[in-house]
């Protein structure tokens, strides 16, 4: 892939002279190369008059562009100017025969933006629309290709009614491999709809490999109407699943049990499991460890904010001692204290690179020792405890200061 990038500081407006310079640079880059193109215009403010400078050049390469990145390009523009810029991209690229990937994150599209981009949005197999102001109304207008492979809709306040629109379309997307629906405020009603849609979709579609429903209401499963049951049905039918994100989904140990049972049934070889913020506690760690010991492919494990404490960490140790695939682990905000950190120091995790331990009680010496073991250790620097030997030195110094003061007072009294 050949990348053409607009560079420059984030959200700084492009001028016509800068646009002309970019065209010259890109033409030079193209000379010795006929590879597919990644065009990245993200995080710069593009007014219509500046885009017009690019028009002829872009039309000449429109059928070479594989990936088009347009994240955060209309911030700071008044509504009409922003819509005019979006319309430009639809006009230029709607005829593309090569566009596979389209990124439009962090643009306030709303229903008018979706309407203006109607033709462009139907081209790519991979479509990313995170934080774009989507709602039920704009989703009703949104049309994507029927064989779409990846769609990311996270961080949109779609709500339960919008979730129903997405859920209705899921069974139609029989080539779908990636669904990101994190932070869309579906409530339990919308979460139920999405999970039912996935369950129906996966009956005939074995391709799903990445699911993110972070910040949804899956619940524990003690009620048969809880959405976790529908998600588990989908997972059990997804043998190619590689990544699962159920952070902040109110699972608790019972919901985790259902989830791990479904994963085992699917025979999926997960590489990423994110289950932070689910009140898993010690009970959940025991069951999780049983699963992880049978899953040698996990390279990313997120367990933050689960109140696992030292006992839960002890349950996890057999896996941590065995794994050779784990590269990144997050154990932040788990009520872990210095004794628990000492357990991590006694057992080096083979091949681990990143260890995240914010909101964890540890000494400066322990933090230094962890950094000697792993290339990237994230802790709260300002909250590190002083080591015992340093505390003893401080105590001795305080005692000596008291003795010196007493001597001075005695001398003054004489």
Automatic annotation (TrEMBL):
Region listing for Disordered, in residue ranges: 380-401
GO molecular function annotations of the record: GTPase activator activity
Alphabetized InterPro entries for the sequence: Leu-rich_rpt (IPR001611), LRR_dom_sf (IPR032675), RanGAP1/2 (IPR045203)
Classification via Pfam families: LRR_6 (PF13516)
Coiled coil: none
UniProt superkingdom: Eukaryota
UniProt name for this protein: Ran GTPase-activating protein 1
């Amino acid at each position: 892939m050949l990348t053409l990038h607009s560079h420059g500081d984030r959200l700084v407006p492009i001028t016509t002279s800068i646009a002309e310079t970019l065209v010259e640079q890109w033409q030079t880059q193209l000379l010795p190369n006929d590879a597919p193109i990644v065009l990245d215009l993200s995080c710069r403010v593009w007014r219509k008059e500046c885009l017009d400078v690019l028009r002829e050049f872009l039309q000449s390469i429109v059928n070479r562009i594989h990936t088009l990145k347009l994240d955060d390009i209309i911030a700071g523009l008044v509504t009409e100017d922003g819509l005019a810029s979006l319309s430009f991209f639809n006009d230029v690229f709607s005829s593309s025969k090569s566009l596979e990937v389209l990124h439009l994150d962090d643009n306030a599209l709303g229903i008018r933006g979706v309407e203006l981009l109607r033709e462009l949005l139907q081209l790519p197999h991979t479509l990313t629309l995170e934080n774009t102001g989507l709602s039920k109304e704009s989703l009703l207008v949104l049309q994507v290709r029927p064989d779409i492979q990846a769609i990311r809709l996270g961080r949109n306040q779609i709500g339960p009614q919008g979730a129903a629109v997405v859920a209705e379309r899921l069974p139609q997307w029989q080539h779908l491999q990636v669904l990101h629906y994190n932070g869309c405020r579906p409530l339990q009603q919308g979460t139920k709809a999405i999970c039912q849609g996935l369950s129906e979709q996966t009956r005939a579609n074995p391709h799903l490999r990445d699911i993110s429903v972070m910040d949804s209401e899956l619940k524990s499963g003690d009620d048969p109407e809880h959405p976790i049951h529908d998600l588990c049905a989908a997972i059990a039918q997804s043998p190619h699943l590689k990544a699962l994100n159920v952070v902040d989904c109110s699972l608790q140990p019972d919901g985790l049990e259902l989830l791990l049972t479904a994963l085992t049934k699917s025979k999926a070889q997960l590489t990423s499991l994110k289950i932070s913020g689910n009140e898993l506690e010690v009970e959940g760690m025991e069951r999780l460890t049983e699963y992880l010991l049978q899953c040698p492919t996990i390279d990313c494990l997120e367990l933050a904010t689960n109140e696992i404490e030292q006992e839960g960490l002890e349950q996890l140790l057999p896996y941590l001692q065995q794994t050779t695939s784990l590269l990144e682990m997050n154990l932040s905000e788990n009520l872990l204290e210095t004794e628990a950190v000492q357990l991590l120091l006694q057992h080096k995790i083979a091949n681990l690179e990143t260890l995240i331990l914010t909101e964890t009680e540890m000494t400066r010496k322990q933090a230094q020792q962890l950094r000697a073991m792993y290339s990237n250790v994230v802790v709260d620097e300002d909250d590190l405890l002083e080591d015992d030997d340093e505390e003893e030195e401080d105590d001795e110094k305080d005692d000596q200061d008291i003795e010196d003061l007493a001597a001075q007072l005695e001398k003054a009294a004489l």
